[in-house]
Amino acid sequence: MLKPFEVTTPKIATKAVTGEKIADNTIETRSFKDGSITPDKLTFGAVARPLSPGVATAEIKDAAVTSTKIAPNAVTSDHIAADAVATDDIKDGAITTEKIRDGAITRDKVADRSVNTADIVDGAVTNAKIAVGAVGASQLAVDSVETVKIKDGAITNAKLATNSVTASKIAAGAVASSELAVDSVITAKIANGAVTAEKLAPGVGGGDTLTMFPTPQTALDQGGITSTTVPASVDLSAIIPVGTKGVIVSIACITQSYTDGGMMAYIFRQLGAEYALQVMAPPVNAPGISNGASVLMPVADNRTLLWQAYVSGINSTELVIYILGYVV
């Protein structure tokens, strides 16, 4: 029988110690020679954590690190290569306003027709941003162009619609002689009495202008005159203009008859003078019209005449006083 510790290393034959001769938990780390454990000596899954100093890049198989092997938030910006994140790697809607750097969106990044009215800040479109000729009639709202928006002198003759300048649009005194066309002031445009002596050129009309009416104007039509009348006034203001100096007066006796022969005379008194017109009687009891002569007489400022009839014989007549013309 062997004594304890009698079997020394020299006593053990080479490869005499087999696995079953080694008690469990007998082999320690110090028992392994450095580099003696090769990959073929390890069973699948035999190497568990912890590993020291760790698994190096060379020990990791290409494409071995899958998404499930990466811990949440483990990949930080310094682990991502420049230009490594492609469009397909970005989730739809993931790029929010705060992720976009100021000034990063240039003109070529904006799609055509993608900017809507709601995308433009109020007051953002300044004059410098509007191309010359870009604002046409269709871009202007109805009644949007105010007076202050129209440049002084910008409304030329071509911009005015035909007959658009009415009397209310012309300032008092704005139409001078230079604005009137040659021969544009006709008689109908001149107020009665407006052409005074100082407006007449030297030698024109001798200072007075005679106007004849196209047809005689009736100043008085009175019938049943059978005897001398009292003086009466005739108002000519509806016939002649203010400033009239004189009138041409004529008379007519209508349906005159007599039985005792004779004539009728009419006296017109004006400015202290008398002007007589007489009408000879027609044949006995012969109805008709008997016209007298005419006379030019002055007219007072109130444009009235004072007349009186003188009757000779037994007569009955209708008197008509006509104004043939006037002098101013």
Give the terminus-to-terminus CA distance.
182 Å
Report helical residue fraction: under 10%
Kindly report the spatial arrangement of strands forming the biggest sheet.
Answer: 1-8-3-6
Q: Structural class of the secondary structure composition?
A: mainly beta
Please tell me how large the radius of gyration is.
Answer: 66 Å
Strand count, sense and barrel status of the largest sheet are: 4 strands, antiparallel
Mean model confidence by pLDDT: 80
Molecular shape: rod-shaped
Protein described:
With 328 residues, the protein is mainly beta. It is built from no helices and eight strands. The strands form two sheets. Strands 1-8-3-6 form a four-stranded antiparallel beta sheet, with no helix packed on it. A four-stranded antiparallel beta sheet has the order 2-7-4-5, with no helix packed on it. It is rod-shaped.
Could you list some keywords that capture this structure?
single chain; 328 residues; mainly beta; four-stranded antiparallel sheet; 8 strands
In short:
With 328 residues, the protein is an all-beta fold.
Question: Which helices and strands appear, and what pairs or packs with what?
Answer:
Elements lengths: L209 E16 L6 E4 L10 E13 L4 E8 L2 E8 L8 E10 L5 E8 L3 E13 L1
Antiparallel strand pairs: 1-8, 2-7, 3-6, 3-8, 4-5, 4-7
